[in-house]
Fold this protein.
Amino acid sequence: MRRLALEALRACALAALCAGTALASEPAPRTPAPEKPGQLQAQPPPFTQGIFPCTQCHVGPGDRTRRDLGFHEDIKFEHDAEHRWCLDCHSNENRDVLHLSNGDPVPFTESYRLCGQCHGDKYRDWRVGVHGKRVGQWDGQKTYFLCVNCHNPHSPRFKPLKPKPRPARPEEMRP
Amino acid sequence: MSRDEGVRKSLPVLPDAPPDPGRRNFMRTAAAGAAVAALSGCGLEDFFRKSFRELSKDDVKRIVASLERKNSAKYGKTVTVSSTPARAGVEFGYGLDLSRCVGCRRCVYACVEENNQSRKNPQIHWIRVLEMDKARGVDLAHAEVYYDAEEVPRPGHFYMPVQCQQCRNPPCVKVCPVQATWKEPDGIVVIDYDWCIGCRCCMSACPYGARHFNWAEPTLPAEEMNPNTHYLGNRPRPKGVVEKCTFCIQRTRAGRYPACVEVCPAGARKFGNLLDPESEIRRVMETKRVFVFKEDLATHPQFYYFYAT
Amino acid sequence: MTGILGFLRGCVRIVARGNRAYYAWLGALAIAILVGLFAYAHQFRTGLIATNMRDQVSWAFYVGNFTFLVGVAAAAVLLVIPAYVYEWGPIKEVVILGELLAISAITMCLLFILVDMGRPDRFLHILPLLGSPNWPRSMLTWDALVLNGYLLLNLTVVVHMLYRGYRGEHYNRKLIVPLVLASIPGAVSIHTVTAFLYNGMAARPFWNASILAPRFIASAFCSGPAVMIILFQILRRTTRIEVKDEAIFKVAELMSYAMFVNLFLLGAEVFKEYYSATEHLLYTQYLWSGIGTHRALVPFAWLALACSVTAFLLFLVPRTRRNWVTLNLGCLLIWAGVYIEKGMGLVIPGMTPDTLGEIYEYRPTATEWAIAAGIFGVGFFVFTVLVKVAVPIMTGTFQAPDRAAGGPKVGKPAVAA
């Protein structure tokens, strides 16, 4: 059921990408400088329905020992799994936020700051719009996509897509 | 040329000299004015009308209104035909990240829907995606545009979409015998579909295979028709004329990104004003390895390929 | 005015009268023209999708025929050069027939362009004042200019000389000689501009070669006069026209030299492509040996070469040049060789592979054959009618009724100018 909802939400996010409409839901987070303030707006982070806020279930700090999870078994973890696990990004004290390597909390809407710690070159490119995607006005209001809108943070490698149909060959065009 | 200079200054746009309006206008008024007045009732007015760049503002309004009426009636929806001119201080630049394109062809079909291309017999795609071998690099002799796969990218291959490069030195503009195609100040090479005689000289001259011909009456289902059109862009074309990518002139002159840029799921397409130092495309030009397709032909395109990684 | 009306009436009478062979010929032409008209109606209605041209090969059969026929039109000058520049008597009388050929060929050229256009209803757009011709940058605009100019020039010369001949008067030397001399650079220009049309396209490496313009002239000069040679023999047999053997053999000899130049230039092209072996070799390779399974043009390329070389030898060797059988065989071979080489053998390899490396093998459709047949029908019809009128004027049998018969022959200026 949850897996289905997750897949459905991911499909919705992808559909949003294809439709290219600017989804304005939450108020704009701190924008990735140095664009003109107010000109950029973020896509929301793609949560599975009902999963947020995490503190619905996670009350207080938990066990820090690395282990297989009982509940989130639908998450396939393929993000440097040899060296990392959940609490390297998710805050143990407050599951509604992430944390940087120095412990600073980071809201989900600014998850790019966390990605940027390791993926600095991508982050620098993303801040100026060279990496990633923007839709809207080239000369004005843009909506940018968070890292996680395209890259599942647990399994970030870009998935292959089914291509759209090949073009018609010239001999296939008849009067 | 310009990329060797320190600052990435844009190359000067080489516009075609517009036809001399004064003398031609006079002769035309003297010679054909009466004829036009007499024939305007029976549709022969189109036979004697002027080329788009010679039309007065009122003529343009009249023609645009007539097109809106005709297209609205034909497609059963409210069709608008804009004639927004180029904005000053704008020179469009397009960046295509070859390290990101996965060959999914969503750009191809987003373009078809946005720009009202003929769907069948002929099927017109303004963007053609070439599948190439990583081992061979950009090698057109071994490129494949008709690739079919369950999933892309296929291992060992990379993908290079090709569309109109909006050259600064466009061979198509040079050879057109009737000046039906020209380069606008913002860089878009446009076609007046009501002036083109269908000789296809431009298609022979284009090194990128970017120009396409309406070999028959275009098949455009009314329910798929995009009613927000531009006179020089995506308005439905007649049979027997040439068409091509216009950087979604109906969107970009209203400040929006082209449809292909917005739909790309890999973020491989960048677009903006080359004269704006804060734009994404300027950042690309300044920080990435950028190259131009068929550079030896000195067409100086406003379409740049780059590798972000 | 009555003179002109009488002339026109006389022309109609002459054209309408003939023997059985003549009527059969006209009948065949009429059928071809009708077939062409029906096919064109279909193409006009459906669009050019009725041909096999597509984006990948966007110029093909029509443009190939056009290119060949521009060469034929230019070749009329091959007769003019010895006649007027070298004052060589035996040819001078029959120069006008070359001009008639030029007129018919240009007519066919213009028709081939018309049927190739996507919007022929917009032909006004290329005219000055009413349209917006892209002059001087577009080679196609130049082509329209020089082709129509050359047509006008030839029409003026022919109409003037025939009408004056009909009236039994001498043609006006001061008008005719400069025009005829101007037709020499005129003929060279129509074919050079057509060559430049291809030559200037950097996108098509097969065409983007400096050798193209000289090759065009050489192949024009060696193919066009073949028609004249055959025509002279027919006219000698069926009318009172005198054409000396020397004239015919001289034309054949000149053709052999032109063919030598043509073959030499071909050799130069082939050397450059195969020796340098850059990516551009692909187009030449497609023509002569095919690429992979795509070999549609290969048999035609070699056939054209065989025809051209054989014709060259037949015209070069005096024994075979002076033998009527081998001479006429040579004419057919040269016509076939150059037709293939300059028609499909030029246009198709220029576009195959296309600019993005794709290979689309083009073959003409039935519609294209039919329309081409119709246009050739029109061309041959125009030529037939013009010759049918011109020959009696030249031999003095078609004269104004109020003039004494036996006036000076057309082609000879008055003794006292």
User: Anything to note?
Assistant: Residues 49 and 55 of chain B are 9 Å apart (CA to CA). The first helix of chain B runs from residue 21 to 39. The radius of gyration of chain B is 20 Å. Chain B has one domain: 86-307.
